[in-house]
Amino acid sequence: MTNIEVLPIAFARDNYLWLIHDGRHAALVDPGEAAPALAALHERALVPVAMLLTHHHADHIAGVGEILARHPGVPVYGPKEDEIAAVDHPVEDGDRIALPALDLTLTALDVAAHTRGHVAYHGDGLLFCGDALFSAGCGRLFEGTPADLERALARLAALDDDTKIYCGHEYTLANLAFARAAEPENAARDQYAARCEALRAEGLPTLPSTIAVEKEINPFLRPDAPGVVAMIAARTGTRPANARACLAALRAWKDVFVS
Ligand code: ZN
Ligand code: FE
Asked: Is the Cβ–Cβ distance between 107 and 95 less than 8 Å?
């Protein structure tokens, strides 16, 4: 176990980039804006040793150029399939990213669905998953299919229960409103929602979540739950044939859901 801390850096309306550091060195996950990342490095006198990108969307990568201008030569990891110009270390499923300065090794997990090449980075009980999985929700299907989403979420759900989830957005409360509609009766979810509302009222992040929590409260990880199946059946007029069909219907509903 390494001696690292993971800090959220909030920017734009609801984005997080994550600063993984040991007091001397740092890795930045999804630096969509340079200024807050550079300020966080400067304040703590941290030397950046890597940037890790989960997918090609601008709100996850737009700060890379300016950070490189200030810190030349920092390696930039990102999914090969997403063909990000700034990436000089393209990664694919199973690739290991050794960060010896942080005594940390992360493994790239192919979780493509939101984008064609989306990866998550996993290691040491930490999961950096960009827009693949959110607390109480998941990313939109911009480039993938429901089958891709099913596969991606199954991979993440299979990680250890105590894995901490650091995702790309503070969408938790809005996702919980949808979760309540999709699965009205879920006491664990209601308790979690109360905790998250209290955190947000104080301006604090609801993240990290954990795999254990998400399996209990996130409808997208519960397409087999009787309450979810019943709600999809009532909404669409047909009982979903299987978990994938239920997941597809959930995702399509969330796309148009107004709380
Ligand atoms: Zn995205
Ligand atoms: Fe995003």
From this structure: yes
Summarised one tens digit per residue, pLDDT across range 143-198 is: 999 999 999 999 999 999 999 999 999 999 999 999 999 999 999 999 999 999 99
CA distance 89 to 35: 23
Q: Which of 30, 59, 95, 110 is catalytic?
A: 59
Position 169, amino acid: H
Catalytic site includes residue 169: yes
Q: What is the pLDDT of residues 77-131, one digit of tens each?
A: 999 999 999 999 999 999 999 999 999 999 999 999 999 999 999 999 999 999 9
Quick one: DSSP state of residue 169? B
Note the pLDDT of residue 259.
Answer: 78
d(CA 137, CA 168): 12
Tokens 């308790």 -> residue? 191
- Max distance between CA atoms of the chain, in angstroms, equals 58
Question: Which residues, other chains included, contact 7 with Cβ-Cβ below 8 Å and sequence gap of 6+?
Answer: 18, 19, 21, 40
Residue type, 122: H
Whether the pTM exceeds 0.85: the reply is: yes
Q: Is 3.30.300.30 the CATH classification of the domain at 5-256?
A: no
**What is the C-alpha separation between 28 and 10, in angstroms, rounded?**
13
The domain segmentation of the chain, as residue ranges, is 5-256
Cα(248) to centroid(ligand 2), Å: 20
